[in-house]
Structure formats: structure tokens, C-alpha cells
User: What shape does this take?
Amino acid sequence: MKDDRARLLREINEGCRTAMDSFAQVKEFVKSGSLQQLVEEYDEQHKEIGFLCRRLLTEDGEKEKEPGTMTKAMMRLVTEFKLLTDQDDSKAAEVLLDGCHAGIKSLGRLLGQYEGAGLEERSIARRLMDIEMELYKKLLVYL
Assistant: This one.
């Protein structure tokens, strides 16, 4: 179903944008070169998936979904508070772990919600879920 395709692609793209905002925010506080490199690597992977979603939406004549202003502001405020109160790599990793966990849960829910979405967009969602799980595992060593 075309509606489920567009909705799923919008949600995936919005999640990628939210993750990229978090990566940018956390980068300011990361001290370890290896954690910095990990953040940059996974930021790039989220950019690629977001770009793919936007391209597919455009090809279908659909518009992307902008992250909610209030949600974005609250997320930024909470992240800043956590990182300003404890400025070390373990806190930055914890913030990113929370984001990965939220992303994995959200993607799982979306795959169930948009059952009419096609193989291509469902595959993109699963790929992003795999990326989130992989990052989650790699972040654990920084706690």
C-alpha cells in the first residue's frame, strides 16, 4: 500500500534526522578519539539512509516529515543537561545508548504498524534497526 510506504519512509527519515542531531550534539562532549570516530561513522550511515528515504519519497511525489519542534527542543535540552552535569565519554555513550534503544523500539513498532509497506522500505527499516543494534553493542565498552 502506497500510504504505508510513504509513512514508513517518513518515519525512518525522521528517526535518522533525530539521530544525526544527537550525534552532532554529543560530538562536542566526546574526548576519546575512538568514540569520536564511532560517532562519525554511524552519523554517516544515518545520513545515507535518510538520503535514501528522501530520494524514494521524492520519486513517489511525497514530502518528508519534519521532526516536531517541541520534541526536538526537549530532546536537546535533556541531552545538554545530562552531558553538562557529567562531561565524560561514559555519559556521552549512555546518551547514545538511550537513543539506540529508542530507535530500535520505534522501528520495531513501525514495522508492525505499517504492514502494508513494501519489501524495499521494510528492508530499509530493518537495515537501520541492525545499524542501531550494532552501534548499541559497540557503545557498551565506553560505559
About this structure: DSSP finds five helices and no strands in the chain. Residues 98 and 136 are 9 Å apart (CA to CA). The domain at 2-142 is CATH 1.20.1260.10 (Ferritin). The mean pLDDT is 93.
